[in-house]
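Notebook p. 47: complex prediction with adenosine-5'-diphosphate.
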Amino acid sequence: MFSKILIANRGEIAVRIIRACKEMGISTVALFSDADREALHVSLADESICIGPARPKDSYLNINAILSAAVACKAQAIHPGYGLLSENPRFARACAECGIAFIGPDADVIARMGDKDEARRTMREAGVPVIPGSGVVASVKEGLKEAERIGYPVLLKARSGGGGRGIRLVNSEKDLERVFPTAQSEALCAFGDGALYIEKYLYPVKHVEVQLLCDNFGAAVALGERDCSVQRKNQKLIEESPCRALTPKKRKELFEFAKKAAKAVGYRNAGTVEFLMDDGGNFYFMEMNTRLQVEHTVTEMVTGVDIVKWQIRIASGLPLDFKQEDISTDGCCAIECRINAETREGLPSCGAVTLLHVPGGPNVRFDTALYQNYAIPPFYDSMIGKLVVCAKTREEAIRKMNAALCELVIEGVEINREQQMEILASPEFEDGTYKTDLCKKLFGCSR
Ligand code: ADP
Ligand code: ADP
Ligand code: MG
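Predicted complex, structure tokens below:
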């Protein structure tokens, strides 16, 4: 087992990883930017190293600075968290070259899945159903031909996109002609890759994803699924497990597809396979996230499995010590609300948290890096906390979430609490039939 791990991330996920390390007796090294000197992850870690100015590209995305820090402090492994460098194959490869274990899958697996076009091809060949679509379309002309074949409406997607960005809805030929050049240059700017492909727009549907743990000895276990259909602008707002809409038979089929997907690329460590499910109960592979997911907490609450600890154990060469049959949710249900510091219009809200009270009680978890008087810097993600509850029935979980949201006090910045409560109160959420159009129905916002 490792004795020292460097955490190449910030915010709530850095805190989450440090906690796992502490419980495992592993010492921790935090990295921070100039803007994060006062951040919680820095004070919780055993050591900390400043790696540069506030902007992510100068600090948390600076591969050379991070690896120099890791070598200098003699870290044996690096945990990348989510976002930032977590899905960057160059980073994973550079870690390996420095003799430092990257806590995640192999660099070439990250590369194969991160290229969404290649991932779709690999999945199709492996017998996993994918969303009807095209390969990379190099020109408007080619795009028009493919869209015609697939049938409008379609999505124009960036091959290297992520975080809900690089996706455009296209309703007609005219639309496609108009947005293609801008989509191409935006993708190039945001992801360093201007390549685009087209997918049939399946709407409204369920977003269902499978949490996998795969060890180095060929064992793969599905820790259940999550329903992440509550989304705004393709970004998840509420996640829950299990998905109400799945029968045991459909769930089994879904797990088999997810495992087939992982097996096709020799996947190791924790990963998530995302699918869309239409009204006919058909699954379509969307992408695989080759990292820890924001909403891994939901799965931890229903299964009792600590996913971060298992990521570390797997990276250090240990085998999984449980089998698929050992995983049970005991009929429990967990729900997570992402707490974002933002205005009702969805604009970021920064500044000092003047008052903070975190809800508690049985089966209530609040993952955050906030503390009273902490000033939220303007340079990073607006997600400042994840409120997760678990209960014996779904109805009870919804009631618990409402109570916890009421109890939460965060003053000094605007948060999305009202919006979350409106979603929980909607009939579609209450009966679990909600799909990806729920936020549009409730708030009239664009997808
Ligand atoms: P999850 O799939 O775990 O729910 P999200 O899609 O919400 O994750 O992304 C997690 C975090 O990573 C967010 O902060 C998001 O902005 C960021 N992120 C994910 N992929 C990318 C990417 N390709 N480029 C930039 N940021 C990304
Ligand atoms: P990211 O890497 O940004 O997470 P995804 O491909 O996972 O990108 O898509 C993000 C979200 O956009 C999905 O959860 C889903 O709600 C929506 N989406 C993506 N592809 C489609 C599609 N073909 N039809 C309908 N919705 C889609
Ligand atoms: Mg996704």
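Notes: The two ends are 45 Å apart (CA to CA). Residues 132-200 form a domain with the Dna Ligase; domain 1 fold (CATH 3.30.1490.20).
Next step: compare against the earlier run before touching the bench.
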